[in-house]
Design brief:
Elements (H helix, E strand, L loop, with lengths): L2 H47 L3 E7 L17 E2 L5 E8 L4 E3 L2 E13 L5 E15 L8 E5 L7 E11 L5 E10 L2
Parallel strand pairs: 2-9
Antiparallel strand pairs: 1-3, 3-7, 4-5, 5-6, 5-8, 8-9
C-alpha cells in the first residue's frame, strides 16, 4: 500500500524533471525561431531592393513538379514537332494583397527568332501565371511549354519576357536551341 504513492510520486517527479529539462530547449527553439524570423526580414528587405531578374532558366526533360523540382535537359537539340519545356526562377518580384494573402502575378511574352535576330513568331501575354500565399513566397518558378509544330531543322532562339503584374518590372531570358531529325 505504501508503494503506490511512491510510484505516483516518482512518476510526478519524473514528469516534472522532464518538463524542467525541456524548458531550456524550448527557449533555445524560441531563440532559433526568432533568429530565423529576423533573417527572413533581412532577406525580404534585400529582395525588395533587387530588380526583377532571372536566377535560372533552361530547358527541362519534363514539366517541373514545383520550385527546384526539375530534371534539366542534357542538351538543347529537339526533334521536329517536339515540345520545348522551360524551367525559370524569377527573383525580385513584388507581392500584392488580395483576400488577406500575398499574390504573385506574371504575364509572359514570347518570341522565336533566328540566331541573326530575324523574328519568326511572337506573342504578348502568351501565358499568365501566379500564386496566392499566406507568406511572401520567394520560391516561385515558371514551368513553360512551347509547341512549334512544323518548325524546320535549323538553329533558333527562344526569347521569354516575364512581366511582373504587381510590381511593374520585366525581365527576359534567351535560350538558343536546334531542331534536328
Amino acid at each position: 500500500m505504501n508503494r503506490l504513492p511512491l510510484r505516483t510520486g516518482g512518476l510526478a517527479l519524473t514528469m516534472l524533471l522532464t518538463a524542467l529539462s525541456a524548458m531550456p530547449a524550448a527557449r533555445a527553439d524560441e531563440a532559433a525561431l526568432a533568429a530565423l524570423e529576423k533573417a527572413r526580414e533581412v532577406f525580404v528587405a534585400q529582395w525588395l531592393k533587387t530588380p526583377l531578374s532571372i536566377r535560372k532558366a533552361f530547358f527541362v526533360a519534363k514539366p517541373a513538379g514545383g520550385f527546384g523540382m526539375y530534371e534539366k535537359r542534357p542538351d538543347s537539340v529537339f526533334k521536329p514537332g517536339e515540345k520545348l519545356l522551360v524551367y525559370a526562377e524569377p527573383v525580385g518580384y513584388r507581392w500584392g494583397k488580395a483576400d488577406g494573402r500575398h499574390v504573385i502575378a506574371f504575364s509572359i511574352d514570347a518570341a522565336l527568332s533566328t540566331p541573326s535576330g530575324n523574328i519568326l513568331w511572337g506573342k504578348k501575354n502568351f501565358m499568365k501565371m501566379g500564386l496566392s500565399s499566406h507568406e511572401r513566397n520567394t520560391g516561385f518558378m515558371a514551368s513553360l511549354t512551347y509547341n512549334f509544330t512544323g518548325l524546320p531543322e535549323g538553329d533558333y532562339v527562344l526569347d521569354t519576357t516575364m512581366n511582373d503584374v504587381v510590381g511593374g518590372g520585366k525581365t527576359s531570358f534567351s535560350l538558343p536551341f536546334s531542331v534536328r531529325k
